[in-house]
Amino acid sequence: MADKQKVAFLGLGVMGFPMAGHLANAGHDVTVYNRTASRAEAWLQKYKGRRGDTPAAAAKDAAIVFSCVGNDDDVRSIVHGDRGALAGMAEGSVYVDHTTASAEVAREIESAARKRKVGFLDAPVSGGQAGAENGKLTVMVGGEPGIFDRAKPVIDAYARACVLMGPAGSGQLAKMVNQICIAGLLQGLAEGLNFAVKAGLDPIKLVEVISKGAAQSWQMDNRAHTMVEGKFSFGFAVDWMRKDLGICLAEAKRNKARLPATALIDQFYAQVQARGGNRWDTSSLIHLLAND
After folding, report:
1. How many domains does the chain have?
2. Is 205 inside any structural domain?
3. Is 48 designated active site?
């Protein structure tokens, strides 16, 4: 069990709201901040804690400050400036960013934090809304070992796995690999299920068989039935996946990694968006095949 600490959580979206809740339920002294204040008030109706009017106010006197927002620019907006989190943090405290963002912004914030003698970890998560709500997230972390060791017992309030991958930026790079793999799995699953239907097979019975062998995956276990049923109004939105794949492709351009399948699947997601599927789950790739 982690020692009870004074912490702050910035960003109460579908992920941050329950993650901050797990910290409160674990007995930590939690101050929250959200750009839309009503969301913070809703959190306070459900959990014990307090609200800060700015990121700096929320971060004041916190041993660890967590954030989970939308993208690079959102992270910068809550970190920098007189109202930003770093302005309110004391020397020796730790900033943990759970946003899925670029490795570049992670290194940028690590540098800014170091100048203030604040520790920094980039710590994107995998597991989706269900993982956040159930406290079963996988956390991929970049940063220094000593800082990681201080933060991990607190992160464990909502994580089933939390692994240090390397120096600052490494957590974001690991999350990129995660998204590359998921995109490929979903396209393969979409093609396989659509093929099964066209071939006259019972896709549900088929999944019962092949999920016991080498084709098994989390996506098959959790998305195959809804894909066959054409249900997509839940889960990880296509807009979010395109944001993440854009980060992957930009990083690949820098490091010269070839991502031909990822680039193609990104364009398939663009086609889903064109069909009005911006907020559909990423498993909606099958819609392009079943409704051509």
Report:
1. 2
2. yes
3. no
Average pLDDT over residues 219-229: 97
Task: Please give the pLDDT value at position 34.
Answer: 98
Could you count the other beta carbons within 10 Å of the beta carbon of residue 253? 10
Indicate which residue of 4, 6, 115, 175 is catalytic: 175
Rounded-to-integer distance, Cα 40 and Cα 252, Å: 37
If one counts every other C-beta atom within 10 angstroms of the C-beta of residue 235, the result is 20
Q: Which one, of 184, 245, 195, 175, lies nearest residue 219 by Cα?
A: 184
pLDDT interval class at 292 (50, 70, 90): confident
Q: What is the pLDDT of residues 122-147, one digit of tens each?
A: 999 999 999 999 999 999 999 999 99
Are residues 114 and 195 located together in one domain of the fold?
no
Instruction: Tell me what pLDDT residue 130 has.
Output: 93
User: On the CB side of 16, how many CA atoms lie within 13 Å of its CA?
Assistant: 28
Listed in sequence order, the residues at least 6 apart from 249 whose beta carbon sits closer than 8 Å to its beta carbon are 259, 262, 263, 266
